[in-house]
Specification:
mainly alpha; 83% helix
Length: 30
């Protein structure tokens, strides 16, 4: 895996975590 691919994977994971952080409180799970 190249550093560029790792960076893209990290960015995607960060976005998913950010979305989950916004959704969980709405669902009453956080």
């Amino acid at each position: 895996m190249s550093s560029g691919e790792a960076g893209e994977a990290l960015q995607a994971a960060t976005e998913i975590v950010a979305q989950a952080d916004q959704l969980l409180p709405r669902l009453g799970l956080y």
